[in-house]
Design goal:
With 171 residues, the protein is an alpha/beta fold. 24% of the residues lie in helices and 32% in strands. The strands form 2 sheets. The chain has a 5-stranded mixed beta sheet with strand order 3-2-5-6-9, with no helix packed on it. Strands 1, 4, 7 and 8 form a 4-stranded mixed beta sheet that branches.
């Protein structure tokens, strides 16, 4: 009788340990789906449409002055997978081509932005500046998200109160 009680108790303990281990393994996967980081990638070609390999692409956060660089691969692609939301500047340069710079554009949480470059033959001391005053459109994902700023959050401590402000909404 004692042996059966021990086997039952030990079996239950083992099941709890296995369940706890599985939960610990699943937690990072679930947490990564809720990341605040953004992603910028693109392709670099010349004016004829041929890929430009080993082009140096630099992304710079204009608020913090921090930058990162990447080189294009054999297919002309570059990627910056883990960027904090903020205002950025992006540039591409390669010897024998003019430097192309995309001025300030904004990255929000979970953005997936594609910025392609078409390099023109010329000196790297010559540059082409592209104004990025349009909205970023994510063509790779159908997710809809928004950034809630402090002013919106302060409109009312009760979330229902916020919608009461808009005309036609009733509580």
């Amino acid at each position: 009788m004692r042996m059966t009680e021990c086997t039952t108790t030990c079996g239950a303990t083992r099941r709890w340990i296995v369940a706890l281990c599985l939960a610990c393994l699943a937690l990072p996967i679930l947490a990564s789906a809720q990341t605040e980081l953004a992603h910028v990638s693109g392709r670099v070609t010349d004016q004829s449409g041929a890929v430009v390999v080993d082009t140096e692409v630099e992304i710079k956060n204009v608020d913090t002055n921090l930058s990162a660089t990447a080189k294009t691969n054999q297919d002309g692609f570059y990627t910056f997978p883990s960027l904090r939301p903020g205002r950025y500047q992006l540039s591409a340069h390669k010897a024998g081509f003019k430097t192309v710079t995309v001025t300030q554009f904004t990255l929000n949480a979970q953005d997936h932005v594609s910025r392609d470059f078409v390099l023109q033959v010329g000196s790297t001391s010559e540059s082409v500046t592209v104004s990025a005053d349009t909205q970023n459109i994510d063509t790779t994902d159908a997710t809809v998200s928004t950034v809630v700023d402090r002013q919106f959050a302060d409109m009312g401590s009760d979330f229902g109160m916020t919608f009461h402000v808009f005309d036609g909404c009733r509580r």
